[in-house]
Amino acid sequence: MKNLEHKLLTDFKIRFSDASLLDTAFTHTSYANEHRLLNISHNERLEFLGDAVLQLLISQYLFKRYPQKAEGELSKRRSVIVREESLAGFSRQCGFDQFVKLGKGEEKSGGRSRDTILGDLFEAFLGALFLDQGLETVKVFLDQVMIPQVEKGNFERVKDYKTGLQELLQTQGDVFIDYRVVAESGPAHDKVFEVAVFVNERELSRGTGRSKKLAEQTAAKKALDQFQ
């Protein structure tokens, strides 16, 4: 972790007071499971916290940046910015993928490049940074790493198939769109989800992914393809 600490200090002027928080943030469940006897903590709880912190700060940014935008438009912009693929990109941009601790099986199966793991890692880091140094430090970090990309409009080019499907179907009147997990496979650290999308209780399509969010996007894309 010394190399990671050096990188954070050099690139972002961040020095953790509690290094154990940083270590936990970069420990995937697969690594903790392979070292159960050592009672190692993994990053899922920090991910949960970091997600909430990220949602708050991005919401605050959008609220101030677009004073004339309605709630629905702000929610759409936020969902694109904080989606899994975007956060995984930030993990790579920061070089975090080099330092995440993975189990041997996860490492061999390409986990170090998996969006699910890297997106969760970014949120876990934010959670750890929040606990160690507070909300303002997290905001400064996001202002340095995320907000410049948002200002350039990079995220507006990211296709959100769920939003696209919703917009298409609602031109035909009020509809109820529901995404349901219909199957799960694989070990706990490497699950594959199958999600079905229903419109007014009629199944349109199914999609798979290594997270529920990715499976939902795949299902939505397949549904959109049916209308083209």
Tell me what you see in this structure.
This protein has 228 residues and is mainly alpha-helical. The protein is 58% helix and 11% strand. The model has no long low-confidence stretch (mean pLDDT 89). Helix 2 (19-25) runs antiparallel to helix 8 (115-133), helix 4 (44-65) packs across helix 5 and helix 8 crosses helix 9. The longest helix has 22 residues, at 44-65. The protein is built from 12 helices and 3 strands, in the order αααααααααααβββα. The protein has a 3-stranded antiparallel beta sheet with strand order 1-2-3, covered by helices on one side. It folds into 2 domains: 2-157, Orthogonal Bundle (Ribonuclease iii, N-terminal Endonuclease Domain, Chain A); 161-225, Double Stranded RNA Binding Domain. It is found in: Cytoplasm. This is Ribonuclease 3. Its cofactor is Mg(2+). Keywords: Cytoplasm, Endonuclease, Hydrolase, Magnesium, Metal-binding, mRNA processing, Nuclease, RNA-binding, rRNA processing, rRNA-binding, tRNA processing.
